[in-house]
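# step 3/5: fold
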Amino acid sequence: MSTDWERYSTPEQTQGRATTPADNGIISLSVGGIRKIPNLTVEHTPEDDNRAHTDVFGDKKRNPEVRMKLHRLANWVIPCRTVD
């Protein structure tokens, strides 16, 4: 999972990097909370054009328990707009 570290990016800057910014909301996740989920790791992986880039490694797609724990950690910062 590709994320941005809030130390280096605002929610608006993060949203602006999306292919279609208006179609993407922004959530906040606690790194400490993510690190408490077994088999997930967080690593700051800056890119040339994005110093804030950070990856969350581990199986998230096929593990409903991990997905639920991430969902519980998530807080909307910029809500996703409703798409018709």
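# step 4/5: annotate
The CA atoms of residues 15 and 21 lie 5 Å apart.
# step 5/5: archive (pending)
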